[in-house]
Amino acid sequence: MSHNYAKPLTSGQKIERLLTRIPPSWHVRMERETGSATWRAVVHAPETSEGAWSDAHMDPADALEDAWRRNRTLLA
């Protein structure tokens, strides 16, 4: 019986993977919360003035993924 021993992606690898999925024309903004170690992100299409911000996350890749999930429905 074989097992999958794949290593989890690093934060940098997750961000790279997400940036290949987000269209190049979309705006991407990431911010670290002042006075804390948490991150928020927003992504939105150029024809919209703003998108929905992610929740606060300890990992910037998680914040970017959250923002992408909230705003990618605009592609449809």
Note down, in words, how this protein is organized:
It is a single chain. By secondary structure, the chain is of the alpha+beta class. The chain has one domain (11-75). The chain is 30% helix and 16% strand. It has two helices and two strands; from the N terminus they run αββα. A two-stranded antiparallel ribbon has the order 1-2. β1 (27-32) and β2 form a beta hairpin. α1 runs parallel beside α2. It starts with 10 loop residues before the first helix and ends in a 5-residue tail after the last helix.
> Strand portion, in percent?
15-25%
Shape: globular
Strand segment count? 2
Give the biggest sheet: 2 strands, antiparallel
Helix and strand content put the structural class at: alpha+beta
**Count of individual domains:** 1
Number of helices: 2
Strand order of the largest sheet: 1-2
Question: Mean pLDDT, nearest integer?
Answer: 89
Give unreliable regions as ranges: none
Element string (H = helix, E = strand): HEEH
Q: Span between N and C termini?
A: 41 Å
Q: Can you give the helix content as a percent range?
A: 25-40%
Radius of gyration, CA atoms, in whole angstroms = 14 Å
